[in-house]
Amino acid sequence: MNAVIIAVELAAAAAFLSIPIVRHRYGARAMADAEAELARQGVRTSALRENGMRFDASGHEWWAPGGIALLLVTAAGLTLAGFDWMRPVNLVVLSLLFLGNCVIVYSNLTAVRSVQAAFRRKNDPELAGVDVPALLQVAEAGFPDWTWTLQKARNTIVFAGSALGLILLAMA
To answer: Taking the CB of residue 29, how many other CB atoms lie within 10 A of it?
Structure first.
């Protein structure tokens, strides 16, 4: 059982690290494409940066997945060391991993509405007129096609792995 828990935690850590790696490599291109789309729409190209919207691995796009990966590697290491108290800790870690990934998926699915709402809150007529679906579509096209396959694989690893780990821990 511990071997499966360790494998799940390490695989999920690698899956979470893939996010900032891809964003670091391709995010600048996605940002440039998004800024070009803003210009095409007649909106100042600085609007994204002014509102904290980025497509690279800076800020929370690095520390959040990096922190999750560090937590998972630490839990795997402590489980490997054979500490009995890691069973309840792993229950919490894997539960939070599952729920946290639910939040990430929800955030991805509601990105258009979220950005539209954020732009409306600024009371800036220029931002309110942005075609957000087109903007996000252009930004997404700045990443390689395989990025979306990687995202699906990451979600599968995290959801299936954490569910399997939780089932094993509950049965033990």
So the answer is: 16
Q: What is the pTM of this model?
A: 0.89
Which single residue is written with the structure tokens 């890691």?
A: 86
Q: Exposed (0-12), middle (13-18) or buried (19+): which is 81, by Cβ within 10 Å?
A: exposed
Residue from 42, 23, 64, 41 nearest 147 by CA = 23
What is the Cα 127 distance to its own chain's centre? 25
User: CB of 35 within 8 A of CB of 48?
Assistant: yes
The tens digit of pLDDT for each residue in 39-52 reads 999 999 999 988 88
Long-range pairs for 35-40: beta carbons < 8 A, 24 or more residues apart:
36/138, 37/134, 37/135, 37/138, 37/139, 38/130, 38/135
What SS3 state is found at 84? coil
